[in-house]
Every structure is written in C-alpha cells, then in structure tokens.
Amino acid sequence: MSSTVSLPLPLPLLEARNLGVSYAIRHAGRRVRLRALDDVSFHLDRAETLGIVGESGSGKSTLARALLRLIPADAGTVRLQPDINLLTLRGAALRSVRSRLQMIFQDGVAALDPRQRIGEALDEPLVVLKPQLTEPQRRERVRSLLELVGLEAGHLDRFPHEFSGGQAQRIGIARALMVEPEIVVCDEPLSSLDVSIKAQITALLQQLQQALQLSMIFIAHDLPAVQQLCDRVLVLYLGRVMEIAPCAALFDRPRHPYTRALLQSVPIPDPRVARGRRTAPLAGEIPSSLAPPSGCVFRTRCPYAIDRCASEVPLLRSIDGSEVACHRAEEI
Amino acid sequence: MSVPMSAPMTAEALLQIRSLSVHYPAANGRAAGAVDALSGVDLDVAAGECLGLVGESGSGKTAILLSILGLLPPNARLGGSIRFHGDELAGMPLKGLNEIRGTRIAMIFQDPMSALNPYMRIIDQLSEVPRVHGGLPRRAAEQRALEMLEAVHIGEPRRRARQYPHELSGGMRQRVMIAMALIAEPELILADEPTTALDVTVQAQILALLQEIRERTGAALLLVTHDLGIVAQLADRIGVMRHGKIVEQADCLALFEHPQHEYTRSLLAAMPRLRVSA
Fold this sequence. Notes:
- The complex is a heterodimer of chains A (about 325) and B (about 280).
- By secondary structure, chain A is an alpha/beta fold.
- Helices cover about 30% and strands about 25% of the residues of chain A.
- Chain A has helices spanning about 60-65, 90-100, 120-130, 135-150, 165-175, 195-210, 225-230, 245-250, 255-265, 270-275, 305-310, and strands spanning about 15-25, 30-45, 50-55, 75-80, 85, 100-105, 185, 215-220, 230-235, 240-245, 315-320, 320-325.
- In chain A, the strands form 2 sheets. An 8-stranded mixed β-sheet of chain A has the order 6-7-8-3-9-10-12-11, sandwiched between helices. Chain A has a 4-stranded antiparallel β-sheet with strand order 2-1-4-5, covered by helices on one side.
- The longest helix of chain A has 18 residues, at about 195-210.
- The N and C termini of chain A lie far apart (about 50 Å).
- Chain B is α/β, with parallel strands linked by helices and about 280 residues long.
- In chain B, strands 6-7-8-3-9-10 form a 6-stranded mixed β-sheet, sandwiched between helices. In chain B, strands 2-1-4-5 form a 4-stranded antiparallel β-sheet, with helices on one face.
- In chain B, a hairpin with a 2-residue loop joins strand 4 (about 75-85) and strand 5.
- The radius of gyration of chain B is 19 Å and the shape is globular.
- Residues about 1-10 of chain B have low confidence and may be disordered.
- The interface of A and B includes residues 224, 225, 252, 271 and 282 of A.
C-alpha cells in the first residue's frame, strides 16, 4: 500500500456517501428486501469520535458491520484516506485495510472464543495482520496492551469464562487495539454492563481516546455515554440519518423532532428534574423496515408532521452547524 | 423452614418483610458453593405506595420479588417473614398462595416474550385470569380483557386481541403484560425491570402508563430496576440493594439529595447523567 506519504490532508479520515444496505429475507412466505440503511452520508476526522445513536432497528449495527465489510453494502461509497474505497476492496488489499479498522463488540464474553486462552486471543490479530513481527515483539505488545486496559499478565493463561463482563470488555478493547488501528468501531460496548462497570469502561475509553489519539465510531443507545465520549453525533431512525451535529449542539439544541423526543425520553436520575418535565412521550412505535413510511420515515410519530412530510423525503440541510433532515427544522 | 410468627404488624403496611433470607446450599453439600442470595432484608410497602428497589446485577432485587410470590427454585431455603395484609406468605401452602397470586398481588416480568404463552391468543391469556380467579363466564371475561387492552392504550384492541404474542411489538407485549397484571385489580403490583427490554422512547411510554395506572387504581408498586433515572421518576421511597442486603432505604428525594450509605453515593456518582438545557 502507498500510504507512506502522510501529508496533512484536509480530507476526512473516513467518508461514507449515500451508503445503503439491504437484507434479503423471507417474509410471509415471500422473498423480500429489507432496506436496513438508506442514503447514509457522514465523515470521520482523525482523532475524532463520532457517536451513532438510534433505537433498535435504526441500522446502527448494520452501519458498523458494513464499514468493516462484515456484510456487503449495495449502494454508495466509503472512502478511507488516502483514496481507498472500502466497499470494493478484495483479497490482500482488504486484509491490509483490516488492521486500520477494528471493532469492539457488545458482549465481551461472547466475542471471545470460549476455548482459546486470553493470551492466544490477543496474539492472534498480530499473527494474522502483522506477520512481520517476531514472537518476542508480539509478546511485548500483548503485555503492554494488557497493562493499558488494566489487566495483568497473570490473566493470559485464563479462558473467557473466568472473566467478569467488565474484564471481558477490557480484553475486547485490548484485542481491537492490538494491531494499532486508526479507526475503532465500538458497537454498544457498554450495554451489557452494570452501572459502576459501565463508568469504568467509559473512563477507560476516554483515557485511550486521549492517549492514542484514536478515531472512533461509537454506537450506543446510552445517550449520557455518548455525551461523555463523542465529538459529533449522528442520529439514525429506520435506516436514515435524521441529524448530524456537534455533540454540544445536539444535546443543547436538538434540531430534529426525533432527536428532541429521544433526549426527552432518557430517564434523569434526579427526582426534581424527572418529575418536573411533563412532556408527553412520543406516541406509537418504530414502523416496520419492510414497509417504511413514504417521505420522511419519522412522520408517523412526529408531532409536527404536515402533508409535505408524506410526499417528499427531507434531505440533510445545514442549520447553524447542525445537519438536519426535516422540512420544518427552522420552525420548531 | 423456620418462620418466626412474631413480627408485629404495623397498621399501614400492605406488605411487611422482616429478616428475609434466601440461601442456596451448594450442590455437593459443602460450604464453598453455597450462596446467600438475600440476608436480613426488612422492608414495608404501604397501600398505594411505590417502592423502588435498585442495585446492580446479583444484588438480590429479583430474589425479593420471587420470594413474595413463592416462585423461588426448590433448592432455595427461605427464612424470615413476608406478611401481606398480615397473612404470612413465607411457607404458605400452594392453595393459599394461588388465591393471592395474580389477583391480589400481580407481577410484571422483564421480558414479555418469555412471560407470555406463545401458543395462546392475547384475548385467551388475558381472559384466563378473570375466568380462573373470578369465576366469570367466557363472554364476560373476554369483555373484561378487551377493556383492559383499552386501559393500557393498545390501538385497535379488538384486532390485537385475536393475535399471538409474536405478532406484537415489544412495547405492545409489555402493555399486554401490564393489562394481565391489572385485570384482577391487584392491591400490589411487582414489576421486575419492566422497561429494560424496550427502546428509550417506548420505555418513556410504559413508565407514563405505570404512573397513570397507579394514580387511577391506587395499587401499590414494588418496582425493581437498575436504572436510578426510573426510580427518580416513579418511586416514593427507594431501597438500595447490594450483596443480598438493603444497604439504605429512604424517601426518593432524600436518597438522591442526601445519600447516607457510601455505596448509594458511589452508585449515584457512577450513574451517567444527561446534561440537557431543556
């Protein structure tokens, strides 16, 4: 690969344009295509963390998997610096890019091979993706990463079931970082953890962000964690982008009615605040991805929906530094 | 089973739990594998009150609910006293328990998909309660079931009533569970993480529904959750659990503003908070 010349390019590290993913599924006895992601565009800068939020079925995990080429995309491009289209790579070229993008999974224990000792699990990515390293070099790297995530050398000979959920997630983080990736995609890394462990893992991710200047895509439905870790946030609903905004702007001045509803739905651990806000919860539930509403996919639950929302798909527009896909964003 | 029968009954407590313990002996009879799921738990739930129980996984929250309903596994050793309206539930024979469970004390489970019978239409599951417990004839019981579906705000209740659980969304299934818990007009509702399996906007709907039901029916609610945000919204009083014990019990506002126990403080500190202007 010719990425030896690393001029400070103004281009983002990663840029997705009009990304689309469909699944072929059987529904009511017929073969149908389920559009899981539709026309998704965003970018990721170096040393930046982009949060992806949305409820189940919004396409968060599909997005993560498509970026890592774990599932095929059927529309759009994903350009990785300097000029690689991630979606068309094959064979050796794809393998060499894999060390640049790594993933941290939701369930730390399930993501590990139950019959593989932790030492081997951590060594494996190096053997596969960094074959130039000697065994002592690999051993040194395993040891130093173990320390970085707060585990000990004594843990190397143990099996995954011997670890708690929090420890397993630390191993998952170490494993993702083994090959010095430029981009780490985290798919709900906190959602299976208890509150005190969640706080520890969030702190660890924050520490790694700074120490390693990681570029991260952080997928979560845990909005407080997103607020703590992310520079910018992308809001997905039914496979489409509703809003992309700098973190502070998104939480202080949500522009999209869905973003607003999402923020108002998060329970606040403060009785005075929790009982003070008397906003009616959003009505209804997420429609089926097999039959998404026409026009704006959110319109069936949107308190501001008008006729135009049913006939015309709202495009992402820039408003005061936020990008919003809503016809009425200025009025509300 | 050793059940002290001397626990004094305070006038206002609907449910009074004293020195409750649950012990699981090791399979091989040695001390090493034995677990005390609960020890020395005292708590009261007054009529119409919402008591929130919070704690991390394995702290014993669910074990309390299962003890009340007599649903602990057979190898569990229950000790202490659980009085409901002064009647001792610990060690009560099945016949007596069955007159209380589902009618005077109802339960809302965490995962409605596994708590509902997948082979039964919604209307049949719901009307079973008034038919079995209330002795209502089929038509009247079904009418009652439809009223309940309306009461929990299920759209098109007649159509939904004819469907099976898998045809409903997660939020709708949880509404059905709540309807099933309410159908016999219980005095006490036990809810075990009733919104954990739901998305956040649907969670907000279900929490609003639980609040509405409390106001409308006056039923007491014993709410188990790991989310301090949920108890902040719903509970009158809160018990904080750790390692099978209640480490602190206080009024909602007092607990959040003046936590006494160190663990409560650390739990509050660890709880991520959304900073919002609105």
